[in-house]
Structure formats: C-alpha cells, structure tokens
Amino acid sequence: MQFSLWLALAGAGALISFTPGAGAINTMSNSLNAGFRRSIWGILGQQAALVVHVLIVALGVGVLVAGSPLAFNIIRYAGAAYLVYLGIRQFLSKPAIQEEQAAALRFEPAGSIFRRGFWVNLLNPKAIVFFLAFTPQFIRPDQPIVTQYAVLTATIVAIDILVMWFFFAAAARSFQRFTQTERGQLVLSKVFGVLFVAVGILLAFIH
C-alpha cells in the first residue's frame, strides 16, 4: 500500500473511531465499572468483532448480507435487541454501596468483558455494509489482496484501540468520583442504560 493511501486510510480510521457509537459507550461503561486498565478487554473484544467484519467483507459474504433484506434485518434486529438488553440491565442495576460489592464489580472476569465487547460490535450489520463500501477505496486489485487487507485491518484495529482506550476509557475516569456514592452510581447506571437503549433503537430504525 502506498504511503499516501495509507495516510488517507489512517485519517479515515481515526474519524470512524472518534464517532460515538455502541463501542464507545461500552468502553466508557467498562472503564467505570471495571476500571481503566481492565476496560482493555472489552476493547479487544470489539476489535475481534471488527476483524470478523473485515473477513466477512473480504470473503464476499458482505455482498450477500447487503443484498438480502431478510439476512440484513435478522442480524440488525438481533444486534439492536442485544444493545437494548444491555441498556435495560444497566438501567436496572443496583448501586454497590458496600466495599465488597464495589470490589466485585471491578473484578468481573476478563473473559466476560471481552465477550460483551465482541457481541456489541459483531451484532452490527451496518458495520459489514460500511466496510463493504469502505474497503474498496483502499484496495488495489493489481496488488496482493491478502497483504492489503492485512495492512488495512491492522491499521483500523490499532487506531481504534488507541482511541477507545486513551480517549473514551480515559474520559470515563473523570466520572469515577460519581461511582463512590449510591446516588452517583444510580445516575451513571441510568445514563449509560439509556444510551445503550438509544443506540439499539437507532440501529433498528435508522436506515
């Protein structure tokens, strides 16, 4: 990949990552509940899903999904339902006012955080359609395809990790003081719960 083309890819990748969405909300929620360092597991889960999306597009399945209203709608509504489920669970969660309860929240298994991040990103068919439109701009048919997709994926993943961890997760740390009181925890739970539900609804109804 030419350096000028890679710079364009990096710029586009940064713009995509800084656009708030389900992944950003999930990252901030993890940073508040599990801590800044452990929020990386959710971010890595989201990147695993991103790699799956790129693979789907690279293998041509993205064309099938984009061209099949039924397949697209099934995945789209499944993704929306999962986000709404996460939002409702967050909204109804009770504050951890005891030290033991607070510690339990901060020690959620890394695998659980990873899986949640993975499903939040994977169940978003719009990402498949987006990459279907996005990747051809940076792929040259006369060059080795596998190498180009590897560079594209590595670039997007690296940028997204940096933005998610050092921007969204770090920004959530400024809200950490609210988690020290029962009222603060209730407010944050309801705010992030509503955000998850809102993103789920937008995913389901905005075309």
UniProtKB/TrEMBL annotation:
Topology in the lipid bilayer: Multi-pass membrane protein
Chain segments annotated as transmembrane: 48-72, 118-139, 151-175, 187-206
Coiled-coil regions, chain positions: none
GO CC annotations, alphabetized: plasma membrane
InterPro entries referenced in this protein's UniProt entry, alphabetically: LeuE-type
Domain of life according to the entry: Bacteria
Signal peptide: none
A single GO molecular function term of this UniProt record: homoserine transmembrane transporter activity
Location of this chain's protein in the cell: Cell membrane
Main localization of the protein described in the UniProt heading: membrane
Keywords: Cell membrane, Membrane, Transmembrane, Transmembrane helix
Protein name: Lysine transporter LysE
Native source organism of the sequence: Pseudarthrobacter enclensis
